Here is the input.
Amino acid sequence: MTLTEILTFAFVASLLVMSPGPNGLLIAKTVPTSGRAAGFANIAGFVSAFFVQGTLSLLGLALILLQSAVAFAVVKYLGAAYLCWIGLKALIAAWRGDVAQQAVSPAKRRRTLWRAYGEGLLTNLLNPKTAMFYLAAFPQFISASDTGPWAAYHLIAVHSLINGLWFGAMVLLFAQLSKAAQSGAFQRWLKAITGVIFIGFAAKLASMRAAL
Here is the structure.
């Protein structure tokens, strides 16, 4: 992988991390009642799930690529359709101003660090979007010259680092950042940018050819 490819992946992953979703809601529920340490335990759970999901995606992709060009085409177009769906959904939401705020109810009891870690882990393990994102992204950023699984793990590490920085900032400055993240204007611009980028990568993925 080149530095440009890594930076491009980091940009796309940043859009995915910053978009409102279950991880942000979990942090919002955890920190007010259980403190910063529990919030960072949530993040540790997120990262652990990323490596599990990434490994499963990598093994699945390798198996598919070894089967046939037809199988490669199937996963290629499924991945492109997924990215395009994300992009169109984001653009429609931005156009309509569909940024309805979600009420966050505080936890009824204080979380232990292990419980907070488990919640972060399960939130992502049970969410197929991360695995689908990796499955769609790996063929675009990992070339045939990249040997072994290390290139994929580099991308997972980049995604994990961005996730830790973003949600770590939310933990440390929750009151300020939660207001910005829930701003209607912020969400509309973020959704619009995300939509354009993901549709572009969908087109790129659909035009790829198998190196068989």
